[in-house]
Amino acid sequence: MALLGLYDRSLIGRASRAALTYEDAAGVTTSWTFGELEARSNRVAAVLRARGLRAGDRLALYLVNQPAFIDLWLACVKLGVIVVPINVLYREREIAHIVHDAAPVAVVTTAEQAALLPADTVPWDVGTLGQEAESASDARPAVHADSETPAALVYTSGTTGASKGAILTHGNFAANALALVQAWEVTADDRYLAVLPLFHVHGLANGVHLWLLSGCHMTLVERFAQERAADWFLTHRPTLFFGVPTMFVRLLALPEDTAREIGAHMRLFVSGSAPLPAPVLEAFRARYGQVILERYGMTETLMNVSNPYHGERRAGTVGFPLPMTAVRLVNEAGEDVPDGTSGELLVRGPHVCAGYWRRPEATAAAFQGGWFRTGDVGVRAADGYITLEGRRSDLIISGGFNIYPREIEELLTELPGVREAAVVGVKDAVRGEVPVAYLVCDDTVAVDRLASTLRAQIASFKVPRAFVRVDGLPRTALGKVQRHLLPPWTLSSAATDA
Ligand code: MLC
Ligand code: AMP
What we know:
By secondary structure, the chain is of the alpha/beta class. It folds into two domains: 3-378, Rossmann fold (3-Layer(aba) Sandwich), CATH 3.40.50.12780; 396-497, GMP Synthetase, Chain A, domain 3 (2-Layer Sandwich), CATH 3.30.300.30. It has 16 helices and 25 strands. Helix 15 links the parallel strand 24 and strand 25 (466-469). Adenosine monophosphate binds at residues 156, 272-275, 294, 296-299, 318, 374, 376, 388, 391, 397, 402.
């Protein structure tokens, strides 16, 4: 099933209906109907074709949330071009890896962000593309796609640490969205408030696709901001909100009567991408009168497990397998474990990616007899609710963004005077976890300047909140760092929140 056929329920079937409202950083709003989005994306597709893009080519998008992202996504879907979204917080080193691996024809970005791209990339200015599109044909191009056509390469680190492009096909996005529309009862009457970044699957596969498949209305903003949130909810009157736990923690800070008013017109709050602490769910219920629905997914598989729309949304759990998803919990030997016993989650279904871009070995290692190994450890209760307990890897999730300790450790040990480094996740009330670095280094190393050195090279959320000098790193006989034996470090109030 090619995605466009599903989008057409909205793009063609609801052509005259209000589809998208964008509120820019200055608070100015602009709106489009589905028919206008159809025409806009056809024109962008014509420009991309004129610039030489063909089915199977890659096009990277290094953009903050904006309508052009939607136009480009739709245009690429129509052309069979594979979108490579890049986190806007990434810096040259991180982008270079993605660009060299995916080999996109170009990276669509702004003049300002283009300065952060590696020298050998071809930047295409998003504004210029938009201007060219104004005079282009708005006829829909011939579509080159079916369910197995790759729609996106989304870079993620899997369980190993090296960032790889998960090949997400038209069929993967379609299956995920069909399952969620059904499970969460999303209809054309909904109004979705989109604050999640479009460059990750939470915002793209869930947000954009539930909007397009249901034909509901979407209000898109550049990025989540606590101080703007009340205004968005009260002005745009959404019924649907998807967020990471950090956003729900921030929403708890809104005044009580505002929260109650927002809660009264909302239908569904969904949390995912990182664990939602049970006390946050309880505090949110008390303040907003709404029980957040927590679900579990990952880039490679899109959504796997969800609390029920009807029935108990059980705090601390992620619920049951979604429609079309099969889940197993297995021990180290790959054998199914009984309910109540921890095991690694394996998943199978039409939403699971086709593997990693040009990495047959990593792809083979990720699957076990046709089942995708999530690397997440969980337990199933006798009544079927699944609780996630941890991960097999050292992955740190901060504000819903992933951090692989090894990447930061390698960067640190490249610095003069740093002999060894270990990066661990420390609990944080707002972001869930934040990274802290332990260093074995010469006295000459100015530890207080390391944060600014790193900030120039990697995304800000990956920069450790503290750098702790130690005499040595605790290691096993085989030389592996025993992170749990590092001296405990708790965040000072200054570092806890900004
Ligand atoms: C943060 N910044 C962003 C941004 N988020 N810039 C553009 N777009 C975003 N989405 C920048 C800010 O401008 C700021 O830069 C710096 O990062 C810190 O911002 P902050 O507001 O202090 O951060 P914080 O309060 O921690 O809140 C951040 C957040 C963000 C919660 C809004 O972390 C976020 O959008 N998280 C969503 C991550 C996500 O979508 N994960 C899904 C992965 S998919 P400066 O320059 O001012 O310092 C997945 C699968 C699944 O995991 O199951 O869903
Ligand atoms: P990513 O690689 O960005 O797709 O991150 C996927 C990872 O996020 C999963 O493997 C989980 O470890 C984690 N994750 C997603 N949703 C949840 C959740 N509801 N609770 C706990 N962890 C989650």
